[in-house]
Amino acid sequence: MSNQVDINAVNLKSSDIGENDKLLKLFSYERGLVTAKIRGVKKAQAKLKYAQEPFCFGKYSLSEGKGGYYTVTGCEANDLFYNLRADLTSFTAAAVMAEYCLIFLDNSPPDTALFKLFTQCLTALCYSGISSQNILIYFIVKALRQGGNFGDFSRCSVCGKILDNYAASDLLEGGFVCRECNIKSIKPLPLAAYKTIKFLGSMEIDRLGTIRADTIDAETALKCLNAFVQNASGKSIKSIEKYIESMYQ
Questions:
Q1: Do both 192 and 125 map to the same domain?
Q2: Pairing between strand 175-177 and 70-79?
Q3: How far is the C-alpha of 196 from the C-alpha of 134, rounded, in Å?
């Protein structure tokens, strides 16, 4: 007999299974990443059609079978974040954040801090009017730091010197290094791109709208952060290139 489980979760990804079913990747507060089948949602009159939509946030009711296999039996939606669908750049930014979560949650225990950050940034993308590039850079910096994959980006990760007019990204050190500690002759990050990471990563989310980052600097910052993601996880965020393309449209 199956057990009933309720989780508070956001749907990160939906994949087709057969003619009418889908497989969901649910980021839950209680259990981390949960994979669950949802039946019949490709039918026009399906009652739970909304539950398989990208970024549906709600209380999912699951039937747990043998071997930890789950099936969605109900969903009370808290927010569908429909406004994201009206703006390609914001929707793609949300997809980048979802891919980040899929990378770092795979075979990992629940991460309540990342869940709170992700839902906070989804809400900001949908409702705040703050630039999506600011929110996305903020999310990646905060998520890397929460996971212990990014050091104090305001200081040299070797000597501790405050970085001001020079910063080179050192993946092995997990942060940025000053000119004197850059013994590997790593090409320094353009100063404006470094300061974009520094300022956006150190602010509260409701203050992000006070920073106007140049698009080229934001692109460089995102590519730099993606390198840290790949170094920490062995995987890069593939959708970040689509987001960068959308920034110029």
A1: yes
A2: unpaired
A3: 9
Of 31, 55, 79, which residue sits at a domain end?
Answer: 79
**Mean pLDDT, the chain cut into blocks of 10 residues (249 residues total):** 86 93 96 95 90 97 84 96 94 98 91 97 97 97 92 90 93 90 92 95 94 94 96 96 93
C-alpha pair distances (Å), 82 with each of 42, 94, 114, 117: 19, 12, 22, 19
- Its domain, for residue 11, covers 3-79
φ, ψ for residue 140 (rounded to 5)? Answer: -65, -45
**Three-state DSSP state, 39:** coil
Length of the chain (residues): 249
DSSP secondary structure code for residue 155 in this structure: B
**Is the entire prediction scored with pTM above 0.90?**
yes
Q: Do 65 and 109 belong to one domain?
A: no
158 with 235, same domain: the answer is yes
At 249 the pLDDT is: 81
In this prediction, residue 32 carries a pLDDT of: 95
The verdict on 190 and 99 lying in the same domain is yes
**Beta bridge pairs of residue 2:** none
The end-to-end CA distance of the chain, in Å, is 53
Picking from 12, 227, 221, 159, the residue whose alpha carbon sits closest to that of residue 98 is: 12
The domain tally of the chain equals 2
**At 5, is the secondary structure helix, strand, or coil?**
strand
Specify whether the CB–CB gap between 56 and 9 falls below 8 A: no
